[in-house]
Design a protein that fits this description.
alpha+beta; 7-stranded antiparallel beta sheet; 13 helices; 22 strands
Length: about 400
């Protein structure tokens, strides 16, 4: 049995296969000199192993693509199983306030060491710096040709090559459809006076919505709520990253130039925002608008920026605030419009949507419906999750299922 790809999905599949069938010869191929590179760098070097969401129906909601297909697999291997798997091998995980789970050591090396140790103990043969150039399939055999002229054959082959173009090319040659890959999980580049000079400011609860040109389009999934971070180049934070994932294809189509609307006070109805501003006008009297915000949720410097955007000067008193300016200020708070002019890369993860068309894969075994004996796991599939450990959970689950099925074949 041969597995191509020395990342999270490939390693987990190799271990699962070798553990389930100790007599199987399992060969794991990696074309670079280092394995588990994404594991090493994820979570700022701490490795966000999974997420503390233990109900499959809730868990799948964190996957813009693949949520229907993953429901069954998550009933067989989900985050609780991931936690148990690592803890029975001496690696304890901890849960942070936002649900992300990390090794208690806060070191990704803990996870890397565990996986490489398990692979050795189960006699997985790891070959690094091995460049496969071509794969053919005839009868029930796969033939792998290598750059150095070497040849390997096997009857079961797993591709866990992530979003690499070679993996996609081999998959097409073996009869599969590839959904064109585009970036997911990225920040928004926005040049706007309201955000200038405010990097580092966080609003803990904001609603970010992609404005679509077709008003009849169902945009329920193209808005996300949560913390928003102002950066030197625009906006980041969980709400922005989640929106970038759910709207990945729409934003790619527009070349990452699109209007968004931000409600900085989504927990307050529009009419109540106006009511609170009006009440402050009557209460604050001669106090200056720029220094007296009725909303503790909005940081002082950001409030000042909104006041200026509403054409309210620094010396303006609340009592003398014209109604037009008050309504403009309410609009800045509840319906601020910003122009996305490009994308940045989320520093902790690089994720793409796209890959092997999901209808061509049996999600009970991760075996191809097109090419018998061919299996898939991880990001090579048209599956992607939002930030928070969900992409690794996809790797663990699909890798485990594929490894189990290969061992039993």
């Amino acid at each position: 049995m041969i597995i191509i790809g020395g990342g999270a999905a490939g390693f987990f599949a190799a271990i699962a296969c070798a553990e389930a069938n100790p007599h199987a010869q399992v060969i794991l191929l990696e074309h670079t000199a280092k394995v588990l590179n994404k594991v090493r760098i994820s979570g700022g070097g701490r490795c966000n192993v999974t997420h503390a969401c233990f109900e499959p129906a809730q868990l799948v909601r964190h996957y813009p693509r693949g949520h229907r297909e993953l429901l069954g697999p998550f009933h067989r291997f989900q985050p609780r199983d991931t936690v148990d798997w690592f803890e029975t091998r001496g690696v304890r995980l901890k849960t942070e306030a936002d649900g992300r789970m990390f090794p208690i050591t806060d070191q990704s090396a803990t996870i890397v060491d565990c996986l490489t140790r398990e692979a050795r103990q189960h006699q997985v043969e790891l070959r690094i710096n091995t460049s496969v150039t071509h794969i053919t399939h005839a009868g029930n055999k796969f033939t792998l040709l290598f750059k150095d002229g070497d040849v390997l054959t096997c009857d079961r082959l797993l591709l866990a090559t992530g979003s690499g173009p070679l993996g996609y090319a081999w998959t097409r040659e073996l009869g599969h459809t590839i959904v064109p890959p585009v970036p997911s999980l990225f920040t928004f580049n926005i040049q706007d006076e309201r955000l200038e000079g405010l990097p580092g400011i966080v609003v803990e609860d904001a609603l970010v919505k992609l404005i679509q040109p077709d008003p009849t389009t169902d945009g329920a999934s193209l808005q996300q709520r949560g913390p928003v971070l102002i950066t030197h180049w625009g906006l980041s934070g969980p709400a922005v990253l989640k929106l970038s994932a759910w709207a990945a294809r729409e934003l790619h189509t527009t070349h990452y130039k699109a209007p968004i609307e931000i409600n900085w006070l989504p927990h307050i109805k529009d009419e109540n925002v106006i009511e609170r501003l009006t009440a402050r006008k009557h209460e604050a009297g001669a106090q200056k608008v720029v220094t007296q915000s009725p909303f503790h949720e909005i940081p002082a410097r950001l409030w000042k920026s909104f006041v200026h955007a509403a054409h309210i000067f620094d010396e303006q008193q609340w009592a003398k605030l014209p109604k037009a300016n008050l309504l403009n200020l309410a609009a800045q708070l509840s319906h601020g419009r910003y122009e996305v002019r490009g994308k940045g890369q989320f520093k902790d993860e690089f994720v793409t949507c796209g890959g092997v068309k999901l209808s061509e894969v049996n999600f009970k075994t991760m075996e191809s419906r097109v090419c018998p004996g061919l299996y898939f796991a991880g990001e090579i599939l048209d599956i992607d999750g939002v930030t928070g450990g969900f992409n690794f959970q996809n790797a663990w689950t699909t890798g485990w299922l594929a490894g189990q099925a290969m061992a039993a074949s």
